[in-house]
């Protein structure tokens, strides 16, 4: 039977006919809706791209270390990681990063260097058009 279990969508597991409930993070569902709305309202395709990446399986989400972000980010850009930011590596400059999740060590390194660790929703509120935002994969 297709449908929902206590409001949670069901999905097919391993391509078989056996329906298993799939737990969905309510904050992720809320974020996906907000991303799509912001993309449409502000004519900013970056938010649609982020929503599509976060709709994928978590094993396909981006995992990015702060050291790599520090190397690839140009001055004045804000990094956007549709996944999780990890704390490996050294930060050589001040920068802001938005992501769905951060490790504690990543937050400490970013804030110690003078940058900000933002949620994706905070970045959308701060920069609705998504200008000068670099999407890191």
How would you describe what is shown here?
Mean pLDDT is 86; it is low at 1-8. Strands 4, 5, 6, 7 and 8 form a 5-stranded parallel beta sheet that branches. This protein is globular. Helix 1 (26-42) packs antiparallel against helix 2. It is built from 5 helices and 8 strands. It has a single domain (25-135), classed as Ribosomal Protein L15, Chain: K, domain 2. It is of the alpha/beta class and 137 residues long. It starts with a strand and ends with a strand.
Short description:
The chain has 137 residues and is an alpha/beta fold. The protein has helices at residues 26-42, 45-55, 66-72, 104-112, 120-126, and strands at 4-5, 8-12, 19-21, 62-65, 78-86, 96-102, 117-119, 133-135.
Reported by name, the CATH topology is Ribosomal Protein L15, Chain: K, domain 2
How many domain units? 1
Report the total helices: 5
How is the main sheet built?
A: 5 strands, parallel
Query: Helical percent range?
Result: 25-40%
Could you say what the CATH architecture is?
Ribosomal Protein L15, Chain: K, domain 2
The CATH class name reads: Alpha Beta
Distance between the termini: 37 Å
How much of the sequence lies in strands comes to 25-35%
Mean pLDDT: 86
Structural class by sheet pairing and helices: alpha/beta
**Order of helix and strand elements from N to C terminus:** EEEHHEHEEHEHE
Number of strands: 8
Shape: globular
Stretches where pLDDT is under 50 for at least 5 consecutive residues are: 1-8
Round the Cα radius of gyration to an integer and report it.
17 Å
